[in-house]
Specification:
Distance between the termini: 45 Å
CATH architecture of the largest domain: Up-down Bundle
Largest sheet: 2 strands, antiparallel
Radius of gyration: 17 Å
Helix content: 55-70%
Structural class: mainly alpha
Strand content: under 5%
Order of helices and strands: HHHEEHHHH
CATH topology of the largest domain: Four Helix Bundle (Hemerythrin (Met), subunit A)
């Protein structure tokens, strides 16, 4: 699948969960995050990373605290435009921790995967369908397991969680990155 198509697939799935969210203050599988914080995470780290490694600048988007739907829509539209523009293929991204690569490759490796993984967080937090592409997750899991020591040292992932022998690929993936794959939101008093 082409980079732009892979992004569109992940972003469309995330956008469906954004559209289906009715309580932006729902807790998520990520401790201390609410549903709006999932959008805030995705819309805040990428613009800074892109600016740190190339001349491309993403326009500011609304705050996810105040307008999570607008924040996601604003960033998503910009990434789609970037990936659809032939000139983006020529943009070289260079970063001390990531290395040197074409900007589309960096977006694919770092952002598309983050969008897909956080789709699960938002879906779980808001009671929506949390099923993700098992083939993509299997590849991601194999790649991450091969770099487990570096991944754990990054501090960006929690301790691997236990899963039963019959766990699905999706459950094994989320357990590997430190999520409880069977997490459900706590009951809220009304």
């Amino acid at each position: 699948m082409a980079v732009a198509d892979r992004y569109r697939s992940a972003a469309d799935g995330f956008a469906r969960r954004v559209a289906g969210t009715t309580d932006w203050d729902s807790p998520t599988p990520v401790a201390q995050w609410r549903a709006r914080d999932v959008v805030g995470h995705l819309t805040s780290w990428l613009p800074a990373l892109v600016a740190s490694g190339c001349e491309v600048r993403l326009d500011p988007v609304p705050s996810a605290e105040e307008d999570p739907v607008g924040a996601w829509a604003g960033l998503d539209a910009q990434i789609r435009s970037l990936l659809d523009a032939p000139a983006t293929e020529e943009v070289v991204f260079q970063h001390e921790h990531i290395g040197r690569m074409p900007l589309p490759q960096m977006l694919d490796q770092y952002f598309t995967s983050d969008v897909l993984f956080h789709t699960w967080d938002l879906a779980r937090a808001t009671g929506q369908d949390d099923r993700l592409d098992e083939d993509y997750l299997a590849g991601a899991l194999a790649g991450m397991q091969a770099r487990a020591e570096m991944i754990r040292a990054s501090g960006q992932f929690g301790q691997e969680q236990p899963v039963p022998d019959d766990a699905s690929v999706q459950e094994r993936f989320f357990a590997f990155i430190g999520r409880d794959p069977r997490w459900t939101p706590p009951a809220r008093s009304r």
